[in-house]
């Protein structure tokens, strides 16, 4: 990560050489250290939230592996409940982690991740003869993250089913969360009539979802103006592959799901640009460096779901488990 200091320094040296301003080499180096510290902090702060977003987006995609009548439509309103694990709510910082900042009044501190509480400490540095001092960002300070979304499906020929979901932006205490996606399910138990006579069904599905999560981040003022990195976004593209099996007991259906997903992560600072942009395009520099913490990840989840029929209305709840635990409840109407 500290190689980024050299890259930032070279960029700043070139940029300032094109300007009429007379920054000293020491000031250019210090700005490089400041941005490097911000990058180091951003990774530890936001990654737990984007990891959690994948789990939130992976649950309750398959209402039932059972094949329905062609062109049947199912519409539902669901509520997702993500249980924030304690282990991902905080991380440790110490003065030796930083090259520009130090912790005010301490050598180390426990600070919240984006999933943590609202505790804050001050980080302090000096640039251009002036003090740079700001509070560390707060977390969402919630033990559960709850958001509603719409889920729909339509039965296609040959046992295929198109599924989709969409949520509006859900306001968190320190940011926003949104997910949407679509997929295709295929029923395989139709090829085994003797199995279906025992009210046993199974299917496979391939699904794509997009998660967008954002948080208030670092509000840093310097001698050259505000840095404009007040908002940090995590953008996640996830491909889900799912096997489902169920057993019907009259009006009740018990469903087991095995899920493997692969996610690609992108991180960007966004929002209103700071006044320092008149001197240097900080957002562009930071976003280029944030590519260094973008990683692909694979997760494996299990899920158990129960579905109860009342005429054309279905009540459903599920619990998904793996690294995290995620709950889901919903009501559906079948046309």
Polypeptide structure, described:
The chain is an alpha+beta fold. It has one domain: Lipocalin (Beta Barrel), CATH 2.40.128. 19% of the residues lie in helices and 50% in strands. It has helices at residues 3-17, 25-58, 193-196, 282-290; strands at residues 73-83, 90-94, 102-103, 108-112, 122-127, 130-135, 144-155, 160-166, 170-171, 175-187, 200-218, 221-222, 225-226, 229-249, 252-270, 296-310, 313-321, 325-334. Strands 1-7-8-10-11-14-15-16-17-18 form a ten-stranded antiparallel barrel. A three-stranded antiparallel β-sheet has the order 3-5-6, covered by helices on one side. A hairpin with a 2-residue loop joins strand 14 and strand 15 (252-270). The longest helix has 34 residues, at 25-58. The model is unreliable at 5-22 (pLDDT under 50).
Features:
alpha+beta, Lipocalin, 10-stranded antiparallel barrel, 3-stranded antiparallel sheet, 4 helices, about 20% helix, elongated
- Overall CATH class: Mainly Beta
H-E order: HHEEEEEEEEEEHEEEEEHEEE
Radius of gyration: 24 Å
Strand order of the largest sheet: 1-7-8-10-11-14-15-16-17-18
Q: Strand content of the residues, in percent?
A: over 45%
Largest sheet: 10 strands, antiparallel, barrel
Distance between the termini: 55 Å
Number of helices: 4
As a percent range, the share of helical residues equals 10-25%
Q: Give me the CATH fold name.
A: Lipocalin
Give the overall shape, derived from the CA principal axes. Answer: elongated
Signal peptide: 1-22
Keywords: Signal
Pfam families: DUF6588
């Amino acid at each position: 990560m500290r190689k980024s200091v050299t890259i930032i320094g070279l960029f700043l040296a070139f940029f300032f050489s094109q300007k009429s301003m007379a920054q000293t080499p020491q000031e250019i180096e210090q700005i490089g250290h400041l941005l490097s510290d911000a990058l180091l902090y951003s990774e530890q702060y936001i990654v737990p939230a984007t990891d959690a977003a994948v789990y939130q987006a992976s649950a309750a995609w398959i209402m039932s592996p059972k094949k329905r009548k062609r062109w049947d439509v199912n519409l539902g309103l669901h509520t997702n409940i993500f249980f924030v694990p304690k282990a991902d709510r905080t991380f440790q910082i110490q003065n030796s982690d930083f090259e520009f900042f130090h912790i005010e009044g301490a050598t180390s501190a426990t600070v919240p991740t984006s999933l943590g509480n609202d505790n804050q400490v001050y980080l302090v540095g000096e640039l251009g003869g002036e003090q740079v001092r700001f509070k560390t960002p707060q977390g969402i300070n919630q033990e559960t993250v709850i958001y509603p979304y719409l889920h729909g499906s339509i039965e296609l020929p040959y046992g295929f089913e198109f599924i989709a979901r969409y949520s509006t932006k859900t306001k968190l205490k320190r940011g926003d969360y949104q997910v949407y996606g679509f997929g295709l399910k295929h029923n395989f138990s139709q090829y085994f009539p003797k199995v279906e006579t025992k009210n046993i069904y199974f299917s496979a599905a391939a699904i794509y979802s997009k998660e967008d999560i954002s948080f208030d981040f670092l509000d840093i003022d310097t001698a050259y103006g505000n840095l404009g990195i007040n908002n940090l976004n995590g953008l996640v593209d996830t491909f889900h592959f799912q096997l489902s099996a169920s057993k019907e007991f009259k009006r009740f259906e018990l469903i087991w799901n095995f899920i493997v997903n692969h996610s690609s992560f992108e991180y960007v600072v966004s929002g209103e640009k700071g006044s320092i942009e008149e001197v240097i395009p900080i957002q562009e520099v930071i976003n280029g460096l944030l590519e260094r913490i973008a990683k692909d990840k694979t997760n494996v989840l299990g899920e158990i779901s129960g579905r109860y029929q009342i005429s054309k209305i279905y009540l459903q709840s599920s619990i998904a488990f793996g690294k995290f635990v995620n709950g889901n409840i919903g009501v559906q109407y079948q046309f």
